[in-house]
Design goal:
Helix content of chain B: over 70%
Radius of gyration of chain B: 24 Å
Largest sheet of chain B: none
Helix content of chain A: 25-40%
Number of strands of chain B: 0
Structural class of chain B: mainly alpha
Distance between the termini of chain B: 43 Å
Oligomer: heterodimer
Shape of chain A: globular
Chain lengths: 332, 297
């Protein structure tokens, strides 16, 4: 990555982010190992783009999202947000900056407090940050409620009186209340019916255009990401294996893992020739990652070097970065 | 947006709803016949306690030495004790003591136990270890023994008995709340609250504490029953209420030497203890069915 590229309108920049969880055992809770949920992840998100993170479950994509907001404390690395190094912020400054970073969670049945009415759920962010008078807060709550396609007379209901899609709209409204610059959406549609998914995605797209939002969109569904994102990072076992422009990634995936993933996406045409790449074996435990390339145990094109040396994420073509020895990192 | 058609529909009449989960709870509580019996018993005793001066025919201290150990009936419905005091009146005034001890000691335990439990569960680490070991130490002693030790150290009186019972029950509530907080802490809406920049104090008060209330209420009602028994036991051992206070346990122990000649001196206080305890236990069981979904079959 050239230095000039880094400067360009970057809203969020992540440099070798690491989040490890200790494995404790025995009477004295001795640390016997680490789960490397996120291991040396770097990327940058430009203002106004939708940045996708995909990967199978357990690959560390949710942990990455939560580490960005320091909801889970990262073990190492840096997160730069809007010119601030948030990984060095004190707790109180961190609470301040969270005004500008919204979060939408996967499960709309779990992310809303069942005992609070929608009005309270939406008003709370404003109260916490001391924004507006009671009257201003009230009108803002009603306005945002309508922005996400619900009506203000529904404000005095409880979350359980809404459907899943409506609840996710409420969760989105909550994230919007503080007019954030960035929204981290952690699988916002994967708990919803397919028909509702597209409604929510369209809503998120509309809001992006209206408020100039930037999204970090975490998902496991490749077709959703293709529909929604501008650039996509593919994660495997806590590492980014490929990061590229959406078109470039879907047209010519370079990393063997990405190729296998894409070959598994169902095609609408039943007669289309599909060459599915079936991966052998199981995903290794993140507590015990393979030496060298993390994918080396399952890669159909594995070479000797893959088992010894970790490949580096580097440019393989315009706007396309791959961490794979197949693309000439052997000389480096 | 997606649902213009629905928006045209007239808004339903604005209902001023109390948290609907509470209302649902009351509805299913009402269907539980035993729990309603318990509620009836407790309402009955509360009324007696409140209206004691109007119901009791005699002063609980008034001695009629001519009428010692008088049989029930006639002027003395429940008979008289060895000092000629009217047992019916003493039991009525005793209701005040037992309910007061039961409720206030449990409130004390709830306040202390909840605070310790929340701190232990939410902040975790060494604070959790410290507080949990403290609970373990308290629980290692049989409750009544610990209460006796505390009263022995502070001196026998109703106040100290109350304090002792409150202390003994702190770990019961503390552990309950800690366990609840441990599971709530992992809820996504707590993570969401942190994500909008909420302070821990607000998260604890607004999000965690209200969600702990169900189990606390259940355990609290059951706890009142135990506290009443413990108070009676301390009274029986002479470590609680002091004469001439008409404490039920104390009445039992004062009269136990007359149990063969004048069984009514023992039967009525005993029956009163049994009924109040039964009432609180029935309510507690009913509330558990309503508020604690894990117990539902």
């Amino acid at each position: 990555m050239s230095p000039t590229q880094v400067q360009e309108d970057s809203l969020l920049e992540v440099r070798s982010l690491k989040t490890y969880f200790p494995i404790r055992k025995g009477l004295f809770q001795r640390e016997v190992g680490q789960v490397k949920a996120v291991d040396d992840v770097s990327f940058q998100v430009r203002k106004g783009e939708s940045f996708g993170i995909v990967g199978e479950s357990g690959c560390g994509k949710s942990t990455t999202g939560r580490s960005l907001l320091r909801l889970i404390e990262p073990t190492g690395g840096e997160v730069m947000f809007d010119g601030h190094k948030v990984t060095e912020f004190s707790d109180s400054r961190m609470r301040e900056i969270r005004r500008d970073m919204g979060m939408i969670f996967q499960d709309p049945f779990a992310s809303l407090n069942p005992r609070h009415k929608v009005r309270k759920i939406l008003e709370e962010p404003l109260i916490v940050h001391g924004i507006g008078s009671a009257e201003e807060r009230r009108s803002r709550v009603e306005r945002v409620m309508e922005t996400v396609g619900l009506s203000s007379w529904q404000l005095d209901r409880f979350p359980h009186q809404f459907s899943g899609g409506q609840r996710q709209r409420i969760a989105i409204a909550r994230a919007l209340m503080l007019q954030p610059k960035l929204i981290v959406a952690d699988e916002p549609v994967s708990a919803l019916d397919v028909s509702i998914q597209s409604q929510i995605l369209n809503l998120m797209q509309d809001l992006k255009d209206e408020f100039g939002l930037t999204y970090v969109f975490i998902a496991h569904d490749l077709s959703v990401v293709k529909h929604f994102c501008d650039r996509v990072a593919v994660m495997y076992l806590g590492r980014i294996v490929e990061l590229a422009d959406k078109h470039s990634l879907y047209r010519e995936p370079k990393h063997p893992y990405t190729q296998a993933l894409l070959s598994a996406v169902p095609k609408p045409d039943p007669n289309a020739a599909s060459e599915r790449i079936i991966l052998q074996g199981e995903i290794p435990s993140p507590a015990n990652v393979p030496q060298g390339c993390v994918f080396s145990t399952r890669c159909p094109q594995v070479m000797d070097i893959c088992r010894q040396q970790k490949p580096v994420l580097q440019p393989t073509s315009e706007g396309h970065m791959t961490a794979c020895h197949l693309y000439g990192s052997a000389e480096a | 947006m997606s649902q213009p058609a629905i928006k045209l529909a007239p808004p339903p009449p604005a209902k001023t709803e109390v948290s609907s989960s509470w209302r649902d709870g009351w509805r299913s509580f009402r269907k539980n016949r035993l729990a309603m019996v318990g509620l009836g018993i407790i309402v009955f005793f509360v009324l007696i306690a409140v209206l004691a001066p109007f119901i009791a025919p005699y002063d609980y201290k008034e001695q009629e030495l001519v009428n010692r150990l008088h049989k029930p009936g006639g002027e003395h419905w429940f008979g008289t004790d060895d000092l000629g005091r009217d047992i019916f009146s003493r039991i009525i005034y005793g209701t005040r003591i037992s309910l007061w001890v039961g409720i206030s000691s449990v409130v004390g335990s709830i306040v202390a136990g909840t605070m310790l439990g929340i701190v232990a569960g939410y902040y975790g680490r060494w604070l959790d270890a410290l507080i949990s070991r403290f609970f373990d130490i308290l629980l290692a002693f049989p409750g009544i023994l610990l209460a006796i030790a505390i009263v022995a150290a502070l001196g026998p009186s109703l106040q100290n008995a109350l304090l002792a019972i409150a202390i003994v029950n702190v770990p019961v509530f503390g552990r309950l709340v800690r366990a609840r907080v441990l599971s709530l802490r992992e809820e996504e809406y707590i993570m969401a609250a942190r994500a909008i920049g909420m302070k821990n104090s607000r998260i604890l008060w607004q999000h965690i504490l209200p969600n702990c209330l169900g189990p606390i209420i259940v355990q609290g009602t059951l706890g009142i029953a135990t506290a009443i028994i413990e108070a009676a036991a301390l009274g029986f051992l002479g470590m609680g209420a002091q004469p001439p206070e008409p404490e039920w346990g104390k009445m039992l122990s004062d009269s136990r030497q007359f149990i063969q000649n004048a069984p009514w001196t023992v039967i009525f206080p005993g029956l009163s203890i049994m009924l109040t305890v039964l009432g609180f236990n029935l309510i507690g069981d009913g509330l558990r069915d309503v508020l604690d979904p894990r117990m539902k079959s």
